[in-house]
Amino acid sequence: MTDLAANQPPPLAGYDLYEADPVLPAALRAFGAGWAEDRVRAIGRRAGTGEAIAWAEQADANPPVLRTHDRYGNRLDEVGFHPAWHALLGTAIGNGLHAWTWREPRQGSGVARAAGFFMWQQVEAGHGCPVSMTHAAVPALRAEPGLAEAWVPLLTSLVYDPVLRPPQQKQGALCGMAMTERQGGSDVRAATTTATPLAAEGDYLLDGHKWFCSAPMSDAFMVLAQAPGGLTCFLLPRVLPDGARNGFHLVRLKDKLGNRANASAEIELARAWARRVGPEGRGVATIVEMVNHTRLDCALGSAGNMRQAVAQASHHAAHRSAFGRRLADQPLMANVLADLTVEAEAAAWLAMRVAAAFDRAEGEAVLRRLITPVAKYWVCKRGPAVAAEALECLGGNGYVEDSGMPRLYREMPLNSIWEGAGNVNCLDVLRALGRQPETLAALQAEIALADGADRHLDAFTRRLERELADTDQLEAGARRLVERLALALAGSLLVRHGRPAVADAFCASRLGGDWGGAFGTLPAGVDFAAIVGPATPGVGPPADSCP
User: Fold this and answer.
1) What mean pLDDT comes out for the span 20-33?
2) CB-based contacts of 501: which residues, under 8 Å, 6+ apart?
3) 249, 279, 284: which is closest to 68 by C-alpha?
């Protein structure tokens, strides 16, 4: 009888995502979070279990369901989720992935939280949305100390409490966001939702619509609306203090390309009570802190998904044979795997460096202002290409839902759209360069820390400096400029902190120009085995990581 399992790789389960990752241990040490290694490792172990992987499959196969009314016609505006979704989200909340930064404000806490988020969302990315927004809401709420005093303890609680009820009865809370409107899209200043002041200071009634509302099952939302003094930020609770439902109505759930386990909704606000956050007319400036933190998580999420794609591809190639030998031993496949690994590790270092800039508070505020949109743009742009090539490494098996690769592939475009699509982030980079030229000086100083370490990086940096001096057609060429800023920073980070084999390959190909138009075109002389081996789950920690 034929053995149907012959020459089929075993499932990639029961492994430690932290120990198998070539970047995270080195990043924690490099950015002052070594003290958190045991806690981060525990998240990595949990993420690789068969139980967690099963949760992801179940949550994706059973998307959320909208209930607008009960049997008597009373409004409910509730979203129902599969138990697997609650298990994923509850694990994230219990491990503080929404709150670690704020609960333990010490050096490295933001980096440690970023590493945990990077791994746990590899299991299933959709539930990372409410985790990310709840984390990001805290710094925005601090613009209104009274609101922060009431809500931050709930938003940073380690208790997952999904039942809708008044805030004073909750053990923990989640926060969503509602900015985008049909007619405005990314131009949030074109919002038509109105905010009418009430007698009590800071209280308003909101009326209007939002075309996209993220995580509509949340307990509260950060919302933009037009007050008498201009566009203003508000905190809108789902349930009022007296137990009544607020005027927050779910019109429909969006039928999305990917991110299917997570709900995204179109909503209407009908005399919805809300509290002002920050002064009238300063809505964008107030909510930008939330946006910046979610942009960081977009980069972390895409980098994490890239890492998972590479792990799946290298695992498959290590166990699958064709034409008389393992796929991993065939030079062309080895080139593809090495190229994908280089891309994924560069993305991880970029994302973790941005996390470190947030972690270092005011000391790196200027650098953070520039590298956040730079990393968000570039890392998120590279994700879909990595996922597509990694899927192809599995051949027909990768195109089948059971492999998990289609879900990963569908997920990849999202982060490039969320919190400002590619052009929005590139224009934000230009805005930073124009209004705060010190941001460029800070980035150049960071890149210069690797001066003299690699000739390709040095030459690339000199060319970039000349390009920055030419301001003609700056807006039309913004994508090219942002890409080159990202590549220079990634090269510097890899040279200083990354694995030498990966840094050499990155600089020779991405910076030196010895590279083709597709993955698998690394130049001659690259040590594929030194790059791919440590990136393959089960091989062990990399031997050539920098301390």
Assistant:
1) 97
2) 526, 527, 530, 531, 544
3) 249
CA of residue 412 relative to chain centroid, distance: 10
pLDDT, one tens digit per residue, over 375-384 is: 999 999 999 9
Q: Which residue has the tokens 């905190």?
A: 235
Report the number of secondary-structure helices (H) and strands (E) in the chain.
19, 11
Tens of pLDDT, residue by residue over 507-539, are 999 999 999 999 999 999 999 999 999 999 986
Say how far apart CA 193 and CA 271 lie, in whole Å.
11
Could you give the CA distance from residue 124 to residue 243 in angstroms, rounded to a whole number?
33
Per-residue pLDDT at 539: 66
| Nearest alpha-carbon partner for 195 in 207, 209, 181 | 207
Q: Within 13 A of 156's CA, how many CA atoms are on the CB side?
A: 19
SS3 246: coil
Identify the structural domains of the chain with CATH numbers, from first to last: 24-281 (2.40.110.20), 285-535 (1.20.140.10)
Spatial distance between the Cα atoms of 539 and 367, rounded to a whole number of angstroms: 36
Q: What angle do CA 195, 200, 202 make, to 5 degrees?
A: 50
Q: What are phi and psi of 13, to 5 degrees?
A: -150, 160
Q: Give the list of residues 6+ apart from residue 482 with CB closer than 8 angstroms, or none.
A: 373, 374, 377, 378, 425, 426, 429
**What is the rounded distance in angstroms from the CA atom of residue 108 to the CA atom of residue 40?**
12
From residue 57, alpha-carbon distances to 16, 54, 172, 308, 401 in Å are: 19, 5, 26, 15, 10
Please give the pLDDT value at position 130.
97
Average pLDDT over residues 331-358: 98
Indicate whether 189 pLDDT > 90: no
Per-residue pLDDT tens digits for 93-133:
999 999 999 999 999 999 999 999 999 999 999 999 999 99
Token readout for 152 is 């931050």
pLDDT at 546 over 60: no
